[in-house]
């Protein structure tokens, strides 16, 4: 997809997978492995990686979003989306 986007003249960035409160703790190892693969693709293809996981991860509860940053344990809240949007629009 990265290469095809470039062929089409698009600016390409990748975003990693968000923490998943309702899937924690079982999904967290899979999410971390997937995010490592996404980071590897970003490095290999020389495209920016938007660290969505780390942006919304609660440092006091690793693998989960802060309560105020999720609306239902699956998706970001309006405040969570605001944080992701700010990251996306300030990244190179």
Characterization of the model:
- The protein has 92 residues and is of the alpha+beta class.
- It has a single domain, classed as SGNH hydrolase (Rossmann fold, 3-Layer(aba) Sandwich).
- The protein has four helices and four strands, in the order H-E-H-E-H-E-E-H.
- The strands form two sheets. It has a two-stranded parallel sheet. The protein has a two-stranded antiparallel ribbon with strand order 3-4.
- The radius of gyration is 14 Å and the shape is globular.
- The two termini are 19 Å apart.
- The model has no long low-confidence stretch (mean pLDDT 96).
Highlighted features:
46% helix, alpha+beta, 92 residues, two-stranded parallel sheet, Rossmann fold, two-stranded antiparallel ribbon, single chain
Helical proportion, percent range: 40-55%
- The averaged pLDDT comes out at 96
CATH class: Alpha Beta
- CATH superfamily, by name, is SGNH hydrolase
Shape: globular
Q: How many strand segments?
A: 4
Q: What is the distance, rounded to the nearest whole angstrom, between the alpha carbons of the first and last residues?
A: 19 Å
Set out the fold topology.
Layout: H1 2-7, E1 14-15, H2 28-45, E2 49-50, H3 52-56, E3 57-58, E4 61-65, H4 78-90
Parallel strand pairs: 1-2
Antiparallel strand pairs: 3-4
Brief write-up:
With 92 residues, the protein is of the alpha+beta class.
């Amino acid at each position: 997809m990265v290469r095809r986007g470039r062929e089409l003249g698009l600016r390409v960035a990748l975003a990693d997978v968000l923490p998943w409160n309702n899937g924690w703790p079982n999904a967290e190892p899979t999410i971390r492995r997937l995010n490592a693969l996404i980071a590897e693709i970003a490095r290999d293809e020389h495209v920016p990686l938007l660290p969505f996981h780390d942006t919304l991860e609660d440092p006091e509860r690793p693998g989960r979003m802060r309560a105020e940053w999720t609306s239902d344990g699956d998706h970001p809240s309006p405040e969570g989306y605001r944080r992701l949007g700010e990251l996306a629009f300030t990244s190179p």
